[in-house]
């Protein structure tokens, strides 16, 4: 016995079509689900970061900074060249970084 196409859910059971809007929404949801939360640092951790940046700037020591990125773990390694206190940023190897994005810092000996 042959089943009619429009009977029950017959027309849609074999259909694998997805609207472009639905596909875009699913992709966006997937991307957002992989997003990392921003780490909240306390006052003592900010003090350690500040000391490490100052030591790198004054003594030209290599610093390793763990920076916030919403989708990956980002590490910046180099010597701090300049600090802009009014702009809350610093320069490492010719590139500016925001102080608020720092999650941790260590100075290499």
List the helices and strands and how they pair.
Layout (H helix, E strand, L loop, with lengths): L9 H4 L6 H14 L9 H17 L3 E5 L6 E5 L1 E5 L4 E4 L2 E4 L3 E6 L2
Name a few traits of the molecule.
YolD; three-stranded antiparallel sheet; 32% helix; SH3 type barrels; 109 residues; YolD-like family protein
CATH class descriptor name: Mainly Beta
The global form is: elongated
Care to count the β-strands? Answer: 6
Relative helix content: 25-40%
Structure commentary:
With 109 residues, this protein is of the alpha+beta class. The protein has one domain: SH3 type barrels (Roll). The chain is 32% helix and 27% strand. The strands form 2 sheets. Strands 2-1-6 form a 3-stranded antiparallel beta sheet, covered by helices on one side. It has a 3-stranded antiparallel beta sheet with strand order 3-4-5. The mean pLDDT is 87.
Please sum up the structure shown.
InterPro entries: YolD. This is YolD-like family protein. By secondary structure, the chain is of the alpha+beta class.
């Amino acid at each position: 016995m042959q089943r009619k196409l429009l009977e029950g859910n017959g027309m849609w059971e074999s259909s694998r079509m997805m609207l472009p809007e639905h596909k875009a929404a699913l992709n966006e949801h997937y991307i957002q689900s992989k997003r990392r939360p921003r780490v909240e640092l306390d006052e003592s951790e900010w003090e350690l970061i500040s000391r490490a940046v100052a030591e790198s700037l004054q003594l030209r020591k290599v610093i390793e900074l763990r920076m916030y990125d919403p989708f990956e773990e980002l590490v910046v390694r180099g010597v701090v060249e300049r600090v802009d206190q009014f702009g809350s940023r610093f320069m490492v190897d010719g590139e500016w970084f925001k102080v608020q994005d720092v999650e941790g810092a260590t100075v290499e000996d």
